[in-house]
Specification:
- By secondary structure, the chain is an alpha+beta fold.
- The chain is built from ten helices and 24 strands.
- The protein folds into four domains: 51 residues; 106 residues, Roll (SH3 type barrels); 81 residues, Roll (SH3 type barrels); 129 residues, Cell wall hydrolase SleB, domain 1 (Arc Repressor Mutant, subunit A), CATH 1.10.10.2520.
- It starts with a helix and ends with a strand.
Length: 438
């Protein structure tokens, strides 16, 4: 052993004697040693637990992968006695789609095979695969259709009593389509007679909320409905009301397309028809209908249109590139100006805005046109911001279609209500619903 090595060992011995085995540092050294041993034990235990957890999850995944998942595939769509399309068992039996996420996705896509759902309100159905073809029906968001065939960007569909063509990009398939259909599922009550009382409670002694007439439609709360009384959302207040079951036909199902009659949309109540809730087994002791005391009004006849009033004709103009903000602003103005008009009337107002934009006389942006002084009075309304945030769906659709070049008023840039304008003094003009375009 060299002197240097011997010196180092002596120094180490001196250090251990002074700092480790010295009685003053015994407690400290024990605590340090304990902490070190504990840290090592925790590290080893954690590593073991993680390894076991990974192996357990791997085993579960392998076992799940070997399971056989049985899917309920629906039969072909059927028609009820009212002619509404009813989706078969795969959609009607919602309990089939609850097992687990993987099975839910697969079941939804299988149940919706061969079907599609509308992605927005006011989607047009045309008689053939062309923008020039007549509009024969419309679909609102979530409405369901059977897909028959595909031609380029168009698909042929059958929904409710309507068979026609829609642009494929406006429809959703698979899980997305199924979820849209589920969100639009409806339970409605259709009144079967005139002058039916809607009451505060399910009792003949309760106060009357409002009167309902034949074919009025109410949202139904099935939870609070029994064999004698149907619980509904009232039309006047939006509150809860009750109607005797024998005066209500309850319909339930998925939305379908509805026809257009002379430009006016005619919506069905729902796609399916379920058995009427409640069967009257006892004789009715108090009639819940009241005779009307109003004198029938004579039928009104529309005056013959002037020779200068022309029917609208669909043409294809140049498209206009608009942002979503532009579309929403247009649709908000349209909601306030013509939200109650037919889709054809809404499309006409959209083209008035775009014709003004093309002319350059009212500004170079949609905002310039809309807020031009003395033009759209509703542009100064405090309610406009709310409509910009949530415009009427059919107005959004009309604005987009007009921007794509679909035009039904030519180059006309003005319109007004029929009661305020003398059509004979306007030269060539077009009347659509309650508006004259010139």
């Amino acid at each position: 052993m060299t002197k240097r090595t011997k010196l180092r060992m002596e120094k180490a011995q001196l250090y251990m004697t002074k700092n480790v085995f010295n009685g003053r540092f015994v407690v400290r050294n024990i605590l340090v040693a304990t902490a070190a041993v504990t840290a090592v034990a925790i590290g080893v235990g954690t590593s073991f637990f993680i390894k076991e957890s990974k192996e357990s999850k791997k085993a579960e995944a392998e076992a799940y992968a070997k399971q056989e998942i049985v899917l309920t595939v629906p039969e072909t769509s059927v028609l009820d006695t009212e002619g509404f399309t009813v989706l078969a068992a795969g959609l009607d039996n919602k309990t089939d789609i609850k097992a687990n996420d993987a099975q839910m996705v697969a079941s939804a896509e299988s149940a919706f095979a061969g079907k599609a759902a509308a992605t927005d309100d006011g989607i047009l159905i045309r008689s053939s695969a062309s923008l020039d073809a007549p509009v024969i029906g419309m679909m609102d968001k979530g409405a369901v259709a059977d897909v028959k065939s595909k031609t380029g960007e168009w698909i042929k569909i059958s929904s409710g009593d309507i068979t026609g063509y829609v642009v494929e990009s406006q429809m959703a398939y698979g899980k997305e389509g199924y979820e849209l259909a589920e969100a639009a599922y409806q339970v409605l009550g259709v009144i079967s007679e005139d002058d039916v009382c809607v009451r505060v409670a399910a009792s003949m002694d309760s106060d009357q909320v409002e009167m309902a007439d034949k074919n009025d439609k109410y949202e139904v709360d099935k939870t609070n409905t029994d064999k004698d009384w149907v619980c509904v959302t009232t039309l006047t207040t939006g509150g809860i009301g009750y109607i005797r079951a024998q005066f209500v036909r309850v319909t339930e199902g998925y939305l379908t397309a509805y026809a257009t009659d002379d430009g006016q949309a005619v919506k069905p109540v729902a796609t399916g028809d379920i058995e009427q809730i409640g069967t009257v087994t006892a004789e009715v002791t108090e009639d819940d209908t009241e005779a009307s005391t109003e004198t029938p009004k004579p039928a009104e006849t529309s005056p013959k249109p002037a020779s200068n009033v022309q029917p609208p004709v669909i043409t294809q103009s140049g498209s206009v590139a608009l942002s979503d903000a532009d579309i929403n602003l247009m649709a908000a103005i349209m909601t306030m100006e013509c939200g109650g008009e037919s889709y054809e009337g809404q499309l006409a107002v959209a083209n008035v805005i775009l014709n003004r934009l093309r002319s350059g006389a009212y500004g170079s942006t949609i905002a310039d046109v809309v807020y031009a002084p003395g033009q759209f009075e509703v542009a100064g309304s405090s309610a406009l911001e709310g409509y910009i945030a949530s415009p009427q769906g059919s107005c959004v659709q009309a604005a987009r279609e007009a921007a794509s070049g679909v035009n039904n008023i030519g180059g006309m840039m003005s319109f007004g209500p029929t009661w305020a304008l003398d059509a004979s003094s306007l030269g060539t003009c077009i009347q659509i619903g309650n508006h004259i375009f010139y």
